[in-house]
């Protein structure tokens, strides 16, 4: 099996069409302010002490007031001791793709739905059996689930033996790359990475995932904003990402961060795929590309 670490699938799935590119001549502080409005200042102290004080840190960096989303969560750089926790969150997040791709993703592929209907109609015409006719789509869905699981597990095996096998070596040591964790009550609850592409002066957002028990708290958005701030500070011209996520929430997250949908493809090959006839018949995935322009080249 040949695994290419450069081919990644994330958190690899339309942003506002009137999103304006930010001028590169401005200073980093002005650029960051243009991208994200100033975070609200901490409220003045009440006459009585608050039960839980406003946490510091968050997506805006250490020492600043945390944003409304991700309140109480600290975003900081990855530490070697957190390798196992980061891999667990990544693994759990990718495993959720299996049923989403097999069943929800079917709506994105009308030709597969049409084929299923035609086979069911043919079975009814040949046998006249309602039971057999109902078994045809059920069997096709079962095959779709089987091959979705097969491909996703192969992809996970590749990822866990390439960049996710040594996060510190792959993301923390090379210049222009970084890996962050979201920490809540001392536990790692989310991850995200950034990797530089020097050829076009862009940085790629990838490996974003949040523990399912802590979703809906704005943690993913806080992680995404950390990557955008990293790109601004390091003078990258744009942030790019690719995703095969089926859930609408994933796309809305990218839109809320300012990303613009750049197109999609039904012919994306996940690392670990064998491209056998069965895989091509029963595993279809749509790959979406997003881009957030920071400044013109």
Automatic annotation (TrEMBL):
Topology relative to the membrane: Single-pass membrane protein
A single MF term (Gene Ontology): L-aspartate N-acetyltransferase activity
Location(s) in or outside the cell: Cytoplasm; Endoplasmic reticulum membrane; Microsome membrane; Mitochondrion membrane
Cellular component, GO, one term: mitochondrial membrane
Residue ranges of the region described as Disordered: 37-72
Catalytic activity annotation: L-aspartate + acetyl-CoA = N-acetyl-L-aspartate + CoA + H(+)
Swiss-Prot/TrEMBL keywords: Acyltransferase, Cytoplasm, Endoplasmic reticulum, Membrane, Microsome, Mitochondrion, Transferase, Transmembrane, Transmembrane helix
Residue ranges constituting the N-acetyltransferase domain according to the UniProt record: 141-278
Pfam families: Acetyltransf_1
UniProt organism field: Pipistrellus kuhlii
Keyword Oxidoreductase: no
Sequence ranges of Pro residues compositional bias: 37-54
Endoplasmic reticulum among keywords: yes
Listed name of the protein: N-acetylaspartate synthetase
Start-end of Gly residues biased regions: 57-69
Family: Belongs to the NAT8 family.
Known function: Catalyzes the synthesis of N-acetylaspartate acid (NAA) from L-aspartate and acetyl-CoA. Promotes dopamine uptake by regulating TNF-alpha expression. Attenuates methamphetamine-induced inhibition of dopamine uptake.
EC number: 2.3.1.17
């Amino acid at each position: 099996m040949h695994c290419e670490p450069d081919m990644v699938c994330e958190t690899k799935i339309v942003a506002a069409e009137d999103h304006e590119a930010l001028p590169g001549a401005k200073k980093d502080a002005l650029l960051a302010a243009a991208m994200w409005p100033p975070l609200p200042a901490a409220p003045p102290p009440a006459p009585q002490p608050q039960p839980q004080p406003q946490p510091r840190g968050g997506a805006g960096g250490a020492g600043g007031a945390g944003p409304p989303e991700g309140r109480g969560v600290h975003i900081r750089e990855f530490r070697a001791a957190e390798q196992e926790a980061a891999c667990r969150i990544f693994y759990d997040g990718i495993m959720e793709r299996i049923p989403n791709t097999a069943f929800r993703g079917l709506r994105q592929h009308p030709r597969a739905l049409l084929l299923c209907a035609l086979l069911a109609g043919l079975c009814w015409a040949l046998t006249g059996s309602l039971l057999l006719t109902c078994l045809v789509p059920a069997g096709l869905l079962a095959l779709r689930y089987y091959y979705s699981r097969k491909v996703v597990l192969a992809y996970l095996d590749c990822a866990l033996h390439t960049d996710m096998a040594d996060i510190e070596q792959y993301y923390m040591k090379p210049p222009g790359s970084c890996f962050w964790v979201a920490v809540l009550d001392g536990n790692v609850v989310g991850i995200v990475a950034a990797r530089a592409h020097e050829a076009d002066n862009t940085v790629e957002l990838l490996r974003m995932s949040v523990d399912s028990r802590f979703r809906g708290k704005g943690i993913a958005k806080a992680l995404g904003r950390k990557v955008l701030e990293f790109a601004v500070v390091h003078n990258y011209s744009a942030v790019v990402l690719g995703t095969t996520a089926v859930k609408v929430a994933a796309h809305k997250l990218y839109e809320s961060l300012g990303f613009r949908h750049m197109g999609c493809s039904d012919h994306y090959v996940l690392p670990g795929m064998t491209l056998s006839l069965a895989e091509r018949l029963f595993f279809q995935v749509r790959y979406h590309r997003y881009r957030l322009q920071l400044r013109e080249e």
